[in-house]
Specification:
Layout: E1 2-7, H1 15-26, E2 32-35, H2 61-72, E3 75-80, H3 89-98, E4 112-118, H4 125-138, E5 147-150, H5 152-155, E6 156-157, E7 160-161, H6 164-193
């Protein structure tokens, strides 16, 4: 199973990127986590370049690449910090592009898990919840477990997640994402057979 991790921080080796790498290390056997590296290149959403709205201009190449990488993945893992009680604008922007066309986008039906992290005690829970709300609209089935890693700067050492509880929670989240992919695959097979 291939999971595409979209990291909501643009900083090199950010806390969010470190958590995404830890998720790959803690994923069940047979689950490969790759990190999307094009977030900074995705332009601001512009309906003039949205073919879903019958515009003559094609979507920018960076948007097509984002959509293609999401489509090629079996599942998504979003790992985000929290800025001003929400996800970073460029992460939300990428989700807006990927959500087009509505109900037929690369996000529609794509299993996902969300992890927020913050050096603050609440772990970016509002960013987590805002993304969950967006995924409800995009038709992106999301793992029910809400994982917000507070005081993440204290739980990461030399790029490794060292806190036992955070490791256990992230391991459980990745296992639940694996299960969600299997359930959705079974449902798709049943729909085709019907």
């Amino acid at each position: 199973m291939k999971v595409l991790a979209i990291v909501g921080s643009l900083r090199e080796n950010s806390l969010s990127e470190q958590v995404a790498r830890a998720a790959g290390d803690l994923a069940p056997e047979g689950v490969e986590v790759g990190i999307y590296k094009g977030l900074a290149s995705v332009p601001a959403y512009n309906a003039d370049h949205d073919p879903a709205l019958d515009q003559p201009e094609p979507a920018p190449a960076e948007v097509e690449d984002l959509r293609a990488q999401i489509s090629a993945a079996d599942a998504l893992l979003i790992v985000t910090p929290e800025y001003n009680a929400g996800p970073p604008g460029y992460l939300k922007n990428a989700i807006d592009w990927a959500s087009r066309p509505h109900k037929a986008s690369s996000l529609a039906g794509k299993p996902a898990a969300i992890v927020s992290q913050s050096p603050m005690p609440f772990g970016g829970i509002w960013a987590n919840q805002a993304l969950r709300k967006s995924f409800t609209i995009t038709g992106t089935p999301t793992v029910e477990r809400e994982l917000a890693i507070g005081k993440s700067d204290e739980k990461l050492e030399d790029g490794r997640l060292v806190d036992d509880q955070a490791r256990a929670d992230l391991t459980a989240l990745m296992a639940e994402l694996n299960e969600l992919v299997a359930v959705i695959s079974d449902q798709e097979r049943e729909a085709v057979a019907a």
